[in-house]
Amino acid sequence: MSHAQVSLQRQWINLQPEDTLTLHRAAGHLLQLDGTPTAAAPQHPVRVWLTEEGMPEDVFLQPGDSYRICGAGRVVLAVWSGGGVRLRLAASEPQATPHQPGANRSRSIQSASACATA
């Protein structure tokens, strides 16, 4: 009996309130939140909470924001407020400074820190 291998590829991942997405070994990948307005706008703006293993601060993203994953540890994302959101995880070319909050328009309650050496 042979075993079939299945591979599923999606350009966008839909997260709904109470969904959690956990990533492993995604260093250097870029997370992008879809900035397209939805027809049924939620009462509260959509925010996605992101925490990355080894980083001292959590990050909150809004539609249109992006975040470059720094380390190879676990990354957990969840819809923090508002309705659903679409996000894309894209492989990116290596850069000298993988996380530049100004360039990626990432937001956090505290200032986003530079990547720690993992």
Question: How does this structure look, described?
Answer:
The protein has 118 residues and is mainly beta. It has a single domain (13-37, 44-104), classed as Jelly Rolls (Sandwich). It contains 1 helix and 8 strands. The chain has a 4-stranded antiparallel β-sheet with strand order 1-8-3-6, with no helix packed on it. A 4-stranded antiparallel β-sheet has the order 2-7-4-5, with no helix packed on it. A hairpin with a 6-residue loop joins β4 and β5. The chain is globular.
- In the residues, how many domains can be counted? 1
Shape: globular
CATH topology (level 3) name: Jelly Rolls
**β-sheet strand percentage:** 25-35%
Radius of gyration (CA) equals: 15 Å
Order of SSEs, N→C? EEEEEEEEH
The number of distinct β-strands equals: 8
Poorly predicted ranges (pLDDT <50, ≥5 residues)?
A: 96-118
| Broad structural category | mainly beta
